[in-house]
Amino acid sequence: MRRKVTLSEVAESAGVSVQTVSNVVNNKPVVSEETRQLVLAHLNECGYRGNAVARSLKTNKSRLIGLVVPSMTNSMYAEVAETIVHEAERRGYTVMMAVTMRDAKTELELANTIVDHNVAGVLMSSSDPEAQASKMVLNVGVPYVELLNRTGEAGCDVFEADNCRGARDAVEYLISLGHRRIAHISGLPNSTGSRRREGYEKALVEAGLSIDADLVVSGEYTRQGGRRACETLLDSGQVFTAVFCASDLMAYGAMEALASRALAVPGDVSVVGFDDMSMSSLPGINLSTVSFNPVKTGQRAIEQLIRRIELPTGVQGDAVHEIAACTLVTRATTAAVNQKSDETT
Predict the structure, then answer these.
(1) DSSP-assigned states of every residue in 275-318
(2) What angle do CA 140, 146, 151 make, to 5 degrees?
(3) Under the phi-then-psi rule, with left for phi > 0, alpha for psi from -120 to 50, and beta for the rest, what region is 208?
(4) Rounded CA gap, 67 and 77, in Å?
(5) pTM of the prediction?
(6) What is the pLDDT of residues 262-317, one digit of tens each?
(7) What is the band of 342 on the pLDDT scale with cuts at 50, 70, 90?
(8) SS3 of 133, please?
(9) How far is CA 214 from the centre of its chain?
């Protein structure tokens, strides 16, 4: 059995006092960042493992945070989760992560399981328009922050992108290129999908264009979902020269569907996505898309959650709602309307 490393041994190795090591282990703010990093390095080198359960019982405070996300196949959520885990660990917390696969029942079940583990707080990117899991977490009084997708439940902090404005900018850009028949592959009817559709419709109305319900097809936030939705549009016989997709993954699928029908992007149909995933700038994809900084949004969300967790007992503070600005990134999948394609697509 491996012998347990003591704080004294770590202190000797790092050349600091036992109290300094204790302050770092217990995440007290009295230590300089330089000393903190030195001690953390020696804690790791010596193989020290504190008893988090014992500390939790002693202080009556959990150091466990629950993170609930809809997907890990979407690299955006993977990057956000990595940032959250890193920031939490830096602050002395451990993250328990659950993936819902965008299923409302699973989301509620996983949220219940996480709460049952006596977590200090919960970060959630909810996919449920009914907000069942969000209501449950708020009802039990666990500090709670919504990330990227918001449910509209009162009293919780929210960190999201400016989905409506971003979508509006994308469609206005397509209109500036001469496109008038612009299709939309929309996402789930949660806040993100609804706000992106709202932006699409606002851009059309403000340009004096009608909203054609036949040009809007909903789909899952996946490449396969985007492909199926685009195939539905093509099979409908509707004429369109551009398509705005509610996510980059959906845009990838839409481009596959267009290619399978021998339609060129952007020669026949221009395509715009949303999220600016890392793959979207690759030469083989080069997707025009709406960009924001989900990693920064995730960092701000975990910072706020920990701030709320560490508020004195009985103090709540006002809910924070931060909306990250979006930027349109134009690449090779958009071009001025092709008059011939306008007649035949």
Answers:
(1) E--GGGGSTTT--EEEE--HHHHHHHHHHHHHHHHTSPTT----
(2) 85
(3) left
(4) 11
(5) 0.79
(6) 999 999 999 999 999 999 999 999 999 999 999 999 999 999 999 999 988 777 78
(7) low
(8) helix
(9) 29
Q: In what order do the strands lie in the sheet with 182-186?
A: 216-218, 182-186, 242-245, 270-275, 288-291, 327-329
| Token representation of residue 49 | 């493992």
Q: What are phi and psi of 70, to 5 degrees?
A: -80, -20
In this predicted structure, the answer to whether residue 198 has a pLDDT above a threshold of 90 is yes
Beginning with the edge strand found earlier in the chain, give each strand of the sheet holding 94-99 in spatial order.
94-99, 64-69, 121-124, 144-147, 157-161, 321-324
User: Are the C-beta atoms of 195 and 163 separated by less than 8 Å?
Assistant: yes
- Structure token digits, residue 316: 């709540």
pLDDT digits over 85-124, tens only?
Answer: 999 999 999 999 999 999 999 999 999 999 988 899 999 9
- 319 φ/ψ angles, rounded to the nearest 5 degrees: -70, 145
The structure tokens listed for 84 are 């959250």
Tally of residues, the chain: 345
Considering only CA atoms, give the Rg of the chain: 24
Question: How much is the average pLDDT of 240-255?
Answer: 97
